[in-house]
Amino acid sequence: MATATSNAKETGILLEAGTNEAEILVFQVGEQYFGVNVAKVKEVLEIGEVTAIPHGHPSIEGLAQIRNEVVTLVNLAHYLYGDEEFPEVAGKDYMLLLEFNSQQLAFRVQRIQRIYRVSWKATKPLPEAPGMTAPITSVILLDGRLIQILDFETIGNKIGHIDQSSSVEDHQVERIEAADCPIVFAEDSRMISEMISDSLEAAGFTNVRGFTDGEDALRYLQSLSAEHDASTIRSAVSVVVTDVEMPRMDGFSLAKQIRSNDQLAQLPIVIFSSLVSRDNEKKGKQVGVTCQVAKPRYEELVNRIREAAGII
């Protein structure tokens, strides 16, 4: 049985909404360093007995019991690098128990480093390159090391444990033509960005513009505000949809900036995130978010956008 060694969320640091800050837990896989938002980390655990399961994804080690719960354990080194052999890392392996999309998934890592408090401004999106399919959303330099922030939602989807593909096409959502309802969204995950675009298109939203982080989305919205006043801005953008954790500017900071702009202030803002929680609901209210939808509820996302745009 796995034994808890620490609760990563009990760091003693309270982050306010709109400060564009996050806590990143840095860990080691092989000789490489990776990071994850502490908000996703439920616990850091020692690895005990693991029960193998047949015919699973090759990166799934099996099932681990954590007190009264059973979770799937993924060998992160195998997922990232296949059967490649690594130099041994001193010390024992640990398990990261993550919670996102209202589900739990555990990952074997080689070493836990520490938690850093960082500004999203310091993180950089992964450069675009042909054939680039790594599950990485951004990178950041910490203590002289380049830390890669992993896209655990995509990893969960690829191994078949977390279903991100529940699009409106799967739920017989009525198509309502809404070409005159421009949607702007910010999402750093390539896979989820494609799902958002496909879901909105299937629902009848054909005027959709996506950005990979809050900073680019804000820059675009500010350009619209220079051409419109508060009475006409909805003709250029009807609803803003945003993830929470993104490089350079997070969703709460984006919402705060929108609310502080006289031309943009009345725009509906929908948070679409794997981190919808009681704490994030409070943060959303602090910065004037209209509503929050948990990933991967694309059907609910469409309905919330329609409500905000006055379509239903």
Automatic annotation (TrEMBL):
The keyword Phosphoprotein belongs to this UniProt entry's keyword annotation: yes
SUPFAM superfamilies attached to this UniProt entry: CheW-like (SSF50341), CheY-like (SSF52172)
Domain Response regulatory, first and last residues per copy: 182-310
InterPro entries assigned: Chemotax_regulator_CheV (IPR024181), CheW-like_dom_sf (IPR036061), CheW-lke_dom (IPR002545), CheY-like_superfamily (IPR011006), Sig_transdc_resp-reg_receiver (IPR001789)
Source taxon at top rank: Bacteria
One Pfam family cited in the UniProt record for this chain: Response_reg
Biological process terms in GO annotation: chemotaxis; phosphorelay signal transduction system
Domain CheW-like: 21-161
Entry keyword set: Phosphoprotein
Modified positions (4-aspartylphosphate) in chain numbering: 243
Protein name as annotated: Chemotaxis protein CheV
Native source species: Blastopirellula retiformator
Upper taxonomic lineage: Bacteria, Pseudomonadati, Planctomycetota, Planctomycetia, Pirellulales
